[in-house]
Amino acid sequence: MIDVAENWQRLRNRVAQAAQRAGREPQSVRIIAVSKTKPLALIEQAIAAGASDIGENYVQEAAEKIAHCSAPARWHMIGHLQRNKAARAVELFEMIHTVDSVALADALARHGQRSGKPVRVLLEVNIGGEATKHGVDPAQVQSLLVSLRDLDGLQIEGLMTIPPPGPTAESVRHYFRALRQLRDRLQAAAPLNARLHELSMGMTDDFEVAIEEGATMVRVGRAIFGERER
User: Fold this and answer.
1) Domain extent listing, the chain
2) For residues 114 and 219, which has the higher predicted lDDT (pLDDT)?
3) Which of 44, 46, 100, 105 is the most exposed place for a label (fewest CB within 10 A)?
4) In this predicted structure, what is the pLDDT of residue 115?
5) How many angstroms separate the CA atoms of 28 and 24, rounded?
């Protein structure tokens, strides 16, 4: 039997301790509770325990959950987003973490302009250069920012990454550090629609190291909800 409330409190304590080790305030780190494949009942338990941000990987699955969720929460798109689902994603999500092309950004921006509210996004960076993963090559992020600078319907809030898997959390620390250093370099000359104050990095197996390296958002599922069912 999964005790979501107990898991949430244990996670909050670990996040706070990691932040304190880095000389940061615990409230500077936002936990995105990743609920892919999890039933709505467990999500509502997490919200009741204190979770305010929920992450989903698929538009259709999220739409069903959001429509029936009885508790208020901010929903985040953390999976790969196809352009033909951009309009629906803008309607559903507080933030989209996985923008990795001009074409997708342009589609989102058009919907943001129509609604009169810029779409809040993160640029997904393929920090390990893996052929099997989505994301922008680190060397191309600056040029992507330049290409997006005139999109009034877009607000670029920061960067997101999923590092290559490693045998330990410590073994992937350098990837998190590299993303933070990339963000710091880009901030000095970022366009007006790119504040770049967010770093979405770290999951159940490595979020503490990510926080120590500057993560402002960690995307945690198993530590809250248990193993995925499919």
Assistant:
1) 4-225
2) 219
3) 44
4) 87
5) 7
DSSP label at 28?
G
Protein fold of 4-225: TIM Barrel (3.20.20)
How many residues comprise the chain? 230
Tell me which DSSP letter residue 138 carries.
G
The CA distances from residue 213 to 8, 161, 202, 210, in Å, are 22, 13, 10, 5
Long-range contacts made by residues 141-147, C-beta under 8 angstroms, separation at least 24? 141/182, 141/186, 142/186, 142/189, 144/101, 144/102, 145/186, 145/190, 145/191, 145/194, 146/191, 147/102
Q: How many C-beta neighbours within 10 Å does residue 68 have?
A: 10
- What amino acid is encoded at 163 in this protein? P
Condensed to tens digits (0 to 9), the pLDDT of residues 47-78 reads: 999 999 999 999 999 999 999 999 999 999 99
Query: Dmax over Cα atoms in the chain, in whole Å?
Result: 51
Neighbours of 132 (CB within 10 A): 6
Q: In the structure encoding, which two tokens stand for residue 216, read together?
A: 């402002």
Report phi then psi at 204, rounded to 5.
Answer: -55, -40
Token duo for residue 189: 């000359």
Residue of 123, 27, 35, 32 lying closest to 74 (CA atoms): 32
Which tokens go with 136?
């922008």
State whether residue 229 is helix, strand or coil: coil
Judge if pTM exceeds 0.90: yes
Annotate 148-162 with b (16+ C-beta within 10 A) or e (fewer): beebebbbbbbbbbb
First to last CA, the chain: 18
